[in-house]
Design goal:
Blueprint lengths: L57 E2 L5 E2 L11 H23 L2 H22 L1 H5 L1 H24 L9 H37 L1 E6 L3 E3 L5 E3 L8 E6 L4 E2 L5 E5 L1 E9 L11 E6 L21 E4 L6 H15 L7 E6 L2 H41 L5
Parallel strand pairs: 3-6, 10-12
Antiparallel strand pairs: 1-2, 4-5, 6-11, 7-9, 8-9, 9-10, 11-12
Amino acid sequence: MYRDSNSDPHNGMPMHGFGPEMMHQGSPHVEIRPPPHHQRLEHQELPEHQKEVLREDVILPGGQKLAQGSDKYALYGALEDLNMMEMRDQHEKLKRRRRINCIPALNSLFLPWVLFLIVYSLASFWVHYVAPVFTWVLNTSIVLFCVGYAYRAFKDPNTRPDVAFYPTYLAISFLLAVSLGWLLGDLNFWFNMHPAYNIEHLGTYLNVNPSQQTTQSGQVMATRGKRYQDAGKVYFDHKVKLDLNRSMSFKMGDLYCVAPIVDPTCKGTCGFDFWAVGINCCAEDVSDFRCGEYNNPAAKSGLRLMYDEQRPNFRLAVLEAEGVHKIVSTHPIFFHWLADPVKELEHVKRKGYKGFVLLMIVSFFFSAMCSYLALKWARDNFKVID
């Protein structure tokens, strides 16, 4: 049966449960359906920290009413505001992350470390030995530069705290690096490298008899130490040994031990100017010398004592030996008794180089740790790090 369109109150329009009232004016053939209830923006569930508490009743489209105090739904327009706020927050986070991983952060890690190594190397090794004035001037210039940089970093009143973070951190790091580098470099130089460099510049003597020597005229006389004042490494005659029965010690905090180096076949006038020395390796009241390679039959050499601060105490021990054993030492020279002076000299230099390598590694990790902690503190306290 056909229905007359003129008599149809809905003018023949299709009915799908929404009715003609849901259609736009001017578009009689377009049917518009709203989204399901659970997909509408005003009905979407928000995280707890984004929920808004209503201060008055709100009527939503469709007749649903939100009572005062409800926090379940966001008002119309609130989602857009929340999205904008989230975008700005993400932008700030990305901005901070990008700033922290840029060149200033790398400078805070590497520049203090490199500065420490430069100052330490200048104060510790060959340049300090051959050009001490130049080394002092150069290191002093570096220190003054760091002081000037620190003055500018701390005295600029127009800089925001977040902008001044990197200059302030670098100023403190520079001052700490140059101070420690100069101090530790000097210690390594005077205790390891300087004695080794001095011995390398002294003379080497072979087949030395410490008790007697024969002059060009054929006269036999006692060997005197003043003839070997420039000796650095001495290789003695194969008959030479330590006279342990005439050893002596002198106590000045530490125990300074000495024993004469003699030719046991010497008869008549014999010299006692060559002495083996050591610290805390003998008895205080009896002749009991156990320093160096005293019990090595192959030990027939001496490496010159180069620590000037120890020499007076060894000289006092020799004076005691002269009084107790009734001997005379006019010009005593002090040596470390051993079999291979060259090997011992290389060991002393290697000790200085090992100290440099160890400090290079330790200082890098120390700089990395300080840089990480400083950047973490800045990120927690500043929104933007310039």
